[in-house]
TrEMBL record, chain A:
UniProt-listed PANTHER family: RNA POLYMERASE ECF-TYPE SIGMA FACTO, RNA POLYMERASE SIGMA FACTOR SIGZ
Region (Disordered): 77-104
Domain annotation RNA polymerase sigma factor 70 region 4 type: ranges: 111-162
Domain RNA polymerase sigma-70 region per the UniProt entry, residue ranges: 16-84
Residue ranges the record marks as coiled coil: none
S-adenosyl-L-methionine listed as a keyword: no
Biased composition (Basic and acidic residues): 77-90
Source organism per UniProt: Knoellia flava TL1
Name of the featured protein: RNA polymerase subunit sigma-24
Keywords recorded for this protein, A-Z: Sigma factor, Transcription, Transcription regulation
UniProtKB/TrEMBL annotation, chain B:
UniProt keyword annotation of Membrane present: yes
Transmembrane segments: 168-189
Cellular component GO terms, alphabetical: plasma membrane
Coiled-coil parts of chain: none
Domain Anti-sigma K factor RskA C-terminal residues, every copy: 171-302
Region called Disordered, residue ranges: 86-116, 295-314
UniProt keyword terms in alphabetical order: Membrane, Transmembrane, Transmembrane helix
Name assigned to this protein: Anti-sigma K factor RskA C-terminal domain-containing protein
Length: 171, 314
């Protein structure tokens, strides 16, 4: 019995090590405070722990699941804060962290930032050149010395992967 | 390299869905051709696919400036403490309808509640577990509720006869192997009451219509299971002929190349043919069923019964 608990705990620790930055970055950019973001991050991993018996490795990525739960926790956090501000007439405190435009979309952006890093090479470089730097596909092929068909294929597979991940993040 | 029958050329292009590759071009930098614009004007499927790809391009551009932030060094021990605190193992916390919005979880914010070496309760599963889990809804479901509360799977695990297995054991194994955790890696389910036995994924589908009257006589489905890709063809009421047989082809979207996939048994409702993923990647996306005679001519007879373009499942 103890062994079972230990194994699960080790697995959770490993997931935290790998996905903690994903969850925490979404939270920081969404709630705008490191302290509040750590509360959200804690809630998300506690929620993962509570859900561990119902996780099933066949219907979406763990990253997508975590991003979705994080987005919802952040929305709860915003709702609670605005209730408190309304009830207690507390002045809104400016965010200590720049959240960027549309903090509610932080989950999408941060998830894709992580996925971009996980694309592997040469796909990651090709996607960065063609999508982020907005260079023409022929231009990317010339710069990398790759056939245009190869470049196009990487872009297509890469964007379809990114789209699939994005679609896992639900409101 | 065999040219398809000439009379089919005009039949395919005007109504054909835009291929993923073409949609990617349009989402990136290219202008739609006249016939593509016309198709997008009438086809919601292709419009939605283009919109979702354009959004992906936009979010990817924004994502490039995001630096991932690692949580502070003390957070993990606070999480561990929260896991071990029975007061926190509170189903209210996962049910937005029950939780009092004005009250924070007790102890979550309390730094004193974070001892490093709290023993793991041995009664991990003999103590009642909360009967709910937080899972996101299926991507296709619109849900007004911020989180969906679903019953936990109860089969096994808690009965006295069954031996407990680590719920996250598969995660641990995956982590140990250093696999699965990247893009397209570990997947998590929301279909709790269905056994997770069917990992086959539908990649693309085509509706098979007659070329002259556009009558729908069947469908073709490309599925992927692990590394195996199959083409399943279901067709009915195919125009009969004296003798001969029906052959299944994949035609390249350049309409210059085609490959034979196999011979269809007209008596069976549907049939599955193994194909190569590469064929699809290289643009062999038009499914064509032809009437062939036993004439020692391996090429397409030119007598197409039905045809349809594979489109990626949204």
């Amino acid at each position: 019995m103890q062994r079972v608990a230990d194994e699960d705990r080790d697995a959770l620790a490993e997931v935290y090590r790998r996905f903690g930055p994903l969850v925490h970055t979404i939270a920081v950019r969404s709630v705008g405070s490191h302290h509040d973001a750590e509360d959200v991050t804690q809630q998300v991993f506690v929620a993962l722990w509570r859900s561990r018996h119902s996780l099933d490795p066949s219907a979406g990525s763990l990253a997508g699941w975590l991003a979705t739960v994080t987005r919802r926790r952040c929305a709860d956090h915003h709702a609670q804060r605005s209730r408190r501000e309304r009830d207690e007439r507390v002045m809104s405190v400016p965010s200590e962290v720049a959240t960027g435009a549309h903090p509610e979309d932080a989950a999408d952006r941060v998830l894709l930032a992580r996925e971009l890093d996980a694309l592997g090479e040469p796909r990651g470089t090709i996607i960065r050149m063609a999508v982020v730097e907005d260079r023409r596909q022929q231009d990317v092929a010339d710069a990398l010395g790759l056939p245009l068909g190869t470049v196009k294929s990487h872009i297509r597979r890469g964007l379809l992967d990114l789209r699939a991940r994005l679609e896992e993040v639900t409101a | 390299m065999i040219r398809p029958p000439a009379h089919t050329r005009g039949d395919v292009l005007p109504t054909e869905h835009l291929a993923d590759e073409r949609l990617v071009d349009l989402a990136l930098d290219e202008d739609a051709l006249t016939h593509e614009r016309a198709h997008l004007g009438v086809c919601a499927l292709c419009r939605d696919a283009l919109a979702s790809l354009s959004r992906t391009v936009g979010v990817t551009r924004e994502a490039s400036s995001v630096e991932l932030v690692t949580p502070g060094p003390g957070l993990w021990s606070r999480i561990e403490a929260a896991l071990d605190d029975p007061a926190l193992d509170d189903p209210h916390a996962v049910d937005p309808d029950i939780v009092d919005p004005g009250v924070d979880d007790p102890g979550v914010d309390d730094p004193s509640a974070a001892p490093d070496e709290v023993p793991v309760p041995a009664a991990l599963r003999t103590e009642p577990m909360p009967d709910v889990a937080v899972l996101p809804p299926a991507p296709t479901e619109a849900s007004a509720s911020p989180e969906v509360v679903v019953p936990l799977r109860t089969a096994g695990g808690r009965g006295q006869a069954s031996r407990p297995r680590p719920a996250l054991g598969w995660l641990a194994a995956a982590c140990a192997a250093g696999v699965l955790l990247g893009a397209g890696g570990i997947v998590v389910a929301d279909r709790l009451r269905e056994p997770a036995v069917d990992p086959a994924r539908t990649v693309a589908t085509a509706e098979l219509d007659t070329l002259d009257t556009a009558q729908r006589l069947g469908t073709a489905t490309v599925s992927e299971r692990a590394d195996d890709v199959t083409l399943e063809v279901a067709a009915r009421d195919l125009r009969p002929a004296d003798g001969g047989y029906v052959e299944v082809w994949l035609i390249n979207r350049d309409l210059q190349r085609m490959v034979s996939v196999g011979v269809l048994d007209e008596k069976s409702a549907d049939q599955t043919f193994p194909i190569s993923r590469r064929l699809l990647d290289e643009g062999y996306v038009i499914v064509d069923l032809s009437r062939e005679q036993f004439d020692d001519k391996p090429q397409h007879s030119g007598d197409s019964l039905v045809r349809g373009s594979l489109t990626t499942r949204a």
